[in-house]
Structures are given as C-alpha cells and as structure tokens.
C-alpha cells in the first residue's frame, strides 16, 4: 500500500469498502439513485448555476443547458442499468456433443472494476465535472467514485458534491460511494494508490499524458481514460460553397465563438476552396459576437500566446482579428479571431499554426484544384474527436468517398453538414477518437457505451446454480438480456455462410 495522509487514506478506504456492496446493488435500486441525483441537481439549479457563472464566466443560458444535460445523462444511465444489456451476458450451455469435444457450462458477464478516480474538467463545470459523464458512467457501472475537483470552480465543485452525496445517501447507497478531494497532489497520490481501480480525465494533452503514464507505470497498471486534445478539422467542397456558402459561414462563426471557443469539439481548421468568397460574411458574423470571458487567467494567457503565434505565422491573413482584453483581475475577455492561409503555408508553419488554440480562434485552410485533401488530413493531423464534411447535395464520387475514409481513420465521429460543437447525449454517440483526442480510441465519454470503460469480463465455468451471480442464473431475477449458445449448435456452425 502507498502511504497517504490520514484524510486521504480514509477516503480511499471508504471507496474500497463500498466497492463490493455497491456493485451488488439491484439494478432498479442503483437506477433510482441516479435519478435521485438528477432530481437533486435540478432542484438546486438556481444556486448551482449562480455559483458556476461567477466562477467560470460562462453564461446563464449555457450553464442551465449544461445542468439539464447532466441530469439527462444520469437518467439515461438509469435506464441503461435497468435494461441490463450493458452487462453483455453470454451463456454457453454444457454440450457433450460439442464440435471440439465436451463443452463445459460457461457463463460470462461484465463486472464493476472498483473505485474510480475522476479528474474533473474546467470547461464543462457540470457535464464533465463533479456530477458529469464520467461520474455518471462509473456510478452506473457500480463503481464508487472519487472526484478530484478542478481548481477553476472550487465552490461549485463542493456544492455539487454535497448535492450528489446527499442524494445517493438518501437513496440508500453505501457510505463511501461518492467523495471529492481537492489539489493536484491529492489526485496524483490517489492515482498511485492500489485501491483505485481506474482513472478518468478531461483536460490538456500534457497533463493527461502525465496522469496516463502514472496509471500505466503502477506495479499493477490500471485503465486510464483521458480526453485530451482535438482540433476537429472540417472540409468544405466547392459544391457546398456554391449551394450554401452563407449558411456555412454563419454556422462556422457560431460554432467557433460558442462559449468563447472553450469546447473540445470546436472546429479549429476549415478546409475551403481557394477563392471561396466567404471572407466578408465571416467577418460580418464575427463582428456581431460580443466579447466573452475566458474560464480563468491561465487559459486567457495561453490563448493570447496561441493567437499571437497564429497571427504572426508566415502566409497568414486576418479575416476577423478579434481582440483579447486582459482585465485587472487577470481574466481575459475575447472575441472570435479567424485567420486564413493556403494549405502549403499552413503545412510549412507546422506547430505554430497547427497546435490547438483553446479559445475562439480558427483557421481557414485554402486549397487548390491540385491539392490532396486526403493526404492533408493524414499528414497534418493526428487523432480527433470529430471530422466534419460539407459536401454538395449530389456529390458522390471516389474523391468524396476517400474523404469519408480519411475522416473515419482520424476521428470517432464523422459529421455531414452541421458543426461538431453539439454533442447529443444519446445511446449511439461516440465522443472519443485516436490519440491525442483520447488515450483509448475504443472508448467514449458520452452515450451509453461510456459505461463499458468501468467494467471487465468474468466467466464462470460449471458453477453451481446457487453460487452464480443474478444476471447469469437461468431464472434471470434481474431480467437482463441473455445471449445463449444452445447445446448442439456447434455442429451447424458455418452453415449460414452458405446461404
């Protein structure tokens, strides 16, 4: 065991003690607990939104929408628990005539990993913070959660944690099932503690990589699910510009400037055909956007440095040179900045332009008839959360299909039309992608599949019926879906291929 300060050690032990009883809670009981948390958050909305607005500078409308999203995803996971399909129950009946010899009775399902340490995000003070998606998914899986609060909204973190803890306790969940800690040292120390079974994180590539390396270097490595960096390229074809250029320009500026561009899905680079003629419309739309406070002084300073680096790169021209104002308290207030350069100049500038700019800034990458867009996506960018394609209504040729394939290689979500800053909280959503978008490109932090990050498979062979977990029993007391391989089926394997 690692040596932790007494208070932190008590936190880790409380989570460890809660792990088995919490994982054993009946689906309806755990589901009701998540709904109780959702109800409690909404009941405290006025107080929580007020605190969040003061600490983050985000608008009331944005924060109320985000709190509602947080409640909705808790309720979605509640239904996911009751449905039971997430347990992936598979039962292979004992088969003396199995094609490879006698087959034992095998029963497999997914079990909770154990205590999860969740590093909260700064830019989503509800949806990816104390009661956000990672917390909801881990609780739904039956894992106790310790949240490492983000320093950008400390009062909100404590108030939200109190609301969540009270709701879970009122729903009869075990002590220690939800706790909060503060401070980077506390988070790192817990991540190294053997009682922590998994970690989750939303934030920068640098910090995420450090934490992922700690999780991987433990004597017994643990899963670590980090959402890190994404510039979310967009490709606009000539046909799309001709058909709806003005609408594309309007949607682009709205997407870049929403929440002052402090979104992991902000479109940072938009490939447009040279001579697109959208400059004036983009500039006009950007001029209507009022300045917006950035989350904290550190982010403001970082954004100013990135904006200066992009603006001064060779070949860059300004379309909307939105200023950033640093107030006496150190907070920054920004308006959208949009720049443009040829594909060749962007490639030549390298990291000075291509690195993520966290804030209301984007670059139009202007390509010519002979430029290879698939090659550009492959060489300029690593993994991303999203790639968006704006194509003409009747465009369907090898060039477009090549772009779709390239987008699929580089992102977890491929959009056609629209803009990536809207992330639907729904079962089929994929919010993850190849490195450095996430540390595990097979996972998602939004949607019902997010629960799988905190589960692992176990098979029981020839277990007495009375010792089987409830989801694996023939009488199926939880009523979960059970995929069965019947005795005798193996003798006909392969027959479907002939049909």
From TrEMBL:
It is an enzyme of class 1 (oxidoreductase). The keyword Nuclease does not apply. It comes from Microbacterium invictum. CDD domains: ALDH_KGSADH. This is NADP-dependent aldehyde dehydrogenase. It comes from the Bacteria. Its EC number is 1.2.1.4. InterPro entries: Ald_DH/histidinol_DH, Ald_DH_N, Aldehyde_DH_dom, Aldehyde_DH_Superfamily, ALDH_KGSADH. The lineage of its organism: Bacteria, Bacillati, Actinomycetota, Actinomycetes, Micrococcales.
């Amino acid at each position: 065991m690692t040596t932790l300060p007494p208070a932190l050690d008590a936190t880790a032990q409380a989570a460890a003690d809660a792990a088995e009883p919490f994982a054993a809670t009946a689906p309806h009981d755990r589901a009701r607990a998540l709904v109780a948390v959702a109800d409690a958050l909404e009941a405290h909305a006025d107080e929580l939104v007020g605190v969040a607005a003061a600490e983050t500078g985000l608008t009331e409308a944005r924060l109320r929408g985000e709190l509602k999203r947080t409640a909705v995803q808790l309720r979605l996971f509640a239904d996911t628990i009751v449905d039971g399909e997430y347990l992936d129950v598979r039962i292979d009946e004992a088969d003396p005539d199995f094609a490879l010899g006698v087959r034992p009775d095998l029963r497999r399902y997914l079990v909770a990993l154990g205590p999860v340490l969740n590093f909260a995000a700064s830019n989503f003070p509800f949806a990816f913070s104390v009661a956000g998606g990672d917390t909801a998914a881990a609780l739904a899986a039956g894992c106790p959660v310790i949240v490492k609060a983000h320093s950008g909204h400390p009062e909100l973190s404590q108030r939200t944690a109190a609301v969540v803890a009270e709701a879970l306790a009122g729903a009869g969940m075990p002590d220690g099932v939800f706790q909060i800690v503060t401070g980077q040292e506390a988070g790192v120390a817990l991540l190294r503690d053997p009682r922590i079974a998994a970690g989750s994180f939303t934030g920068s590539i640098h910090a995420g990589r450090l934490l992922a390396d700690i999780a991987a270097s433990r004597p017994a490595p643990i899963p670590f699910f980090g959402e890190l960096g994404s510039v979310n390229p967009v490709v606009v074809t000539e046909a799309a510009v001709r058909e709806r250029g003005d609408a594309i320009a309007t949607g682009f500026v709205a997407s870049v400037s929403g929440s002052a561009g402090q979104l992991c899905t902000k479109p940072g680079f938009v490939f447009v055909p040279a001579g697109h003629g959208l400059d004036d419309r983009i500039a006009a739309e950007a001029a209507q956007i009022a300045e917006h406070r950035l989350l904290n002084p550190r982010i403001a300073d970082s954004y100013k440095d990135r904006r200066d680096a992009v603006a001064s790169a060779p070949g860059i021209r300004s379309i909307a040179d939105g200023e950033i104002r640093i107030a006496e308290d150190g907070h920054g207030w920004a308006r959208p900045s949009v720049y443009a350069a040829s594909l060749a100049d962007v490639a030549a500038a390298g990291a000075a332009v291509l690195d993520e700019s966290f804030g209301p800034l984007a670059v139009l990458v202007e390509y010519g008839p002979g430029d290879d867009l698939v090659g550009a996506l492959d060489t300029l960018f690593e993994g991303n959360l999203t790639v968006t394609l704006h194509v003409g209504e009747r465009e369907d040729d090898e060039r477009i299909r090549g772009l779709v394939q390239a987008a699929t290689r580089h992102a977890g979500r491929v959009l056609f039309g629209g803009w990536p800053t809207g992330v639907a909280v729904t079962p089929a959503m994929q919010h993850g992608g190849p490195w450095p978008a996430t540390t595990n490109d097979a996972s998602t932090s939004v949607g019902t599949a997010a629960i799988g990050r905190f589960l692992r498979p176990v098979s029981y062979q020839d277990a007495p019926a009375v010792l089987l977990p409830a989801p694996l029993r023939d009488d199926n007391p939880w009523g979960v879906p059970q995929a069965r391989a019947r005795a005798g089926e193996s003798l006909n394997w392969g027959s479907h291929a002939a049909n």
